[in-house]
Specification:
With about 150 residues, the chain is α/β, with parallel strands linked by helices. It has a single domain (about 30-150), classed as Immunoglobulin-like, CATH 2.60.40.420. It is built from two helices and nine strands. The chain has a four-stranded mixed sheet with strand order 2-1-4-7, with no helix packed on it. A three-stranded mixed sheet has the order 3-9-8, with helices on one face. Strands 5-6 form a two-stranded antiparallel sheet. A hairpin with a 4-residue loop joins strand 5 and strand 6. The model is unreliable at about 25-35 and about 40-60 (pLDDT under 50).
């Protein structure tokens, strides 16, 4: 009888240790604000466009259309280059409850799940701007991206 209790206690302790180990090793790693800016600078300096349109050359009046996806703590693409003064049309398909938020342009749009959500704006200043999901906990879990305007 005592031996059965000892075995049960050992099994419970081992299970608790395994679960604790799994929970501790599954951390979400998100880049710091400084790392995010450094990545954007590197992309801009190297001239590596992350998102290219099908059109070779566009004038400032042509609308740049970018198709995006939003889901469990991600945006895809999560970095793209824009031209100063060129109108932009984002077409975002969302999986779940999310927002597309850019503080510098006062954009905060709730994305309808399963729908193509359209957001139009014209970048009015050069720089690197963060976009993110404003649902509590999503930004902190890595649902962020960068817009590089040149």
């Amino acid at each position: 009888m005592l031996m059965n209790k000892t075995i049960v206690v050992l099994v419970v302790v081992v299970l608790i240790l395994i679960v604790g180990y799994l929970l501790l090793t599954q951390t979400v790693s998100t880049p710091s604000e400084l790392e995010t800016e450094e990545m954007a600078k590197g992309i801009a300096e190297e001239g590596m466009p992350v998102e290219e349109s099908d059109t070779e050359e566009m004038s400032a009046e042509e609308v740049r259309v970018i198709s995006m996806r939003s889901g469990g703590f991600f945006f895809e693409p999560n970095v793209f280059n824009l031209k100063l003064g060129q109108p932009v049309r984002l077409e975002i398909t969302s999986q779940g409850a999310h927002t597309f938020t850019v503080d510098e342009w006062n954009i905060n749009v709730a994305l309808e799940e399963g729908e193509v959500n359209v957001i139009e704006f014209t970048p009015d200043r050069a720089g690197t701007f963060e976009f993110y999901c404003a649902v509590p906990g999503h930004r902190e879990s890595g649902q962020v991206g960068m817009i590089i305007v040149e």
